[in-house]
Amino acid sequence: MIRIGANPICWSNDDMVEIGGDISLEQCLSEARDIGIEGMEKGNKFPKTAPALKAKLAEYGLVFVSGWYSTFLLERDGDAEFAAGLDELKLRRDAGAEVLVTCECTRTVHGTKSAPLSTRPVMTDAEWATFLPRMTRFAELCRDFGLEVVYHHHMGTVVQTEAEVDRLMAGTGPAVKLLLDTGHITWAGGDPVRMAKTYAGRIGHVHAKDVRRDVAAQATAEDWSFLDSVLAGVYTVPGDGCIDFASVFKALPDYSGWVVIEAEQDPEKANPKRYVTMGYANLKRFLAEAGLA
């Protein structure tokens, strides 16, 4: 079964809290409900305890989907990572999440507005040899705890390109699932359709965002930071950019889970309700074209 969710980053940014800072949580949740969204990922304005989080979402007929978790497995092993994150993992599990959106954030530049994407970290062979078994161990511990790790490849981090995703998938055990983010892999020069076909059996979560190809090309040519690129409109909702979503979903005939609209934009330029409404309608159409309900 496919369920369509949203990330509050469509309304208010987490890396630059001033972007959409004036938009209340209540506006975000009421608009998401009215659009037809079934569940929400976590944002900085959400309640900080599992009971309060579940209750707040329930006021709007929504459920909790998941929440981003930054790992630092190049700095500590899987057991230490799990111990360090236990409170955060418990909050997500107890609020109703089944997956843990995970991204290795050692030396990441995606949250630093002054750091060009060309300065992002790239792992050495020795670091890969350290990272991969630690990620597997962390995922196994999370699985036993009740959360399935879905790895979020992301611009500005150590797993950004298609080749890096391939290396991650080849070098980790079955407890590590993949979060397919259509926008990040496209901007990184990869092919989301090929990714979907290759990893269909390990994709446990989907972030649906589109890419404005002209903005992405300019961002690369002029070596912008991730956040400057977001503010310029590199991302948009499904159907408003260059990605062939119907083909992506056709490559996932057996997928069951969340498809989350996660298209960070400047709400001053892209009204969140109007854009998420458009993205939701487009997603429904693309899923229908692919034969997914």
TrEMBL record:
Taxonomic source organism: Roseiarcus fermentans
Stored NCBIfam families: myo_inos_iolE (TIGR04379)
Official protein name in the record: 2-keto-myo-inositol dehydratase
Domain Xylose isomerase-like TIM barrel: 30-270
Transmembrane segments: none
Signal peptide: none
Lineage of the species this protein comes from: Bacteria, Pseudomonadati, Pseudomonadota, Alphaproteobacteria, Hyphomicrobiales
InterPro entries for the chain: IolE/MocC (IPR030823), IolE/XylAMocC-like (IPR050312), Xyl_isomerase-like_sf (IPR036237), Xyl_isomerase-like_TIM-brl (IPR013022)
A Pfam family: AP_endonuc_2
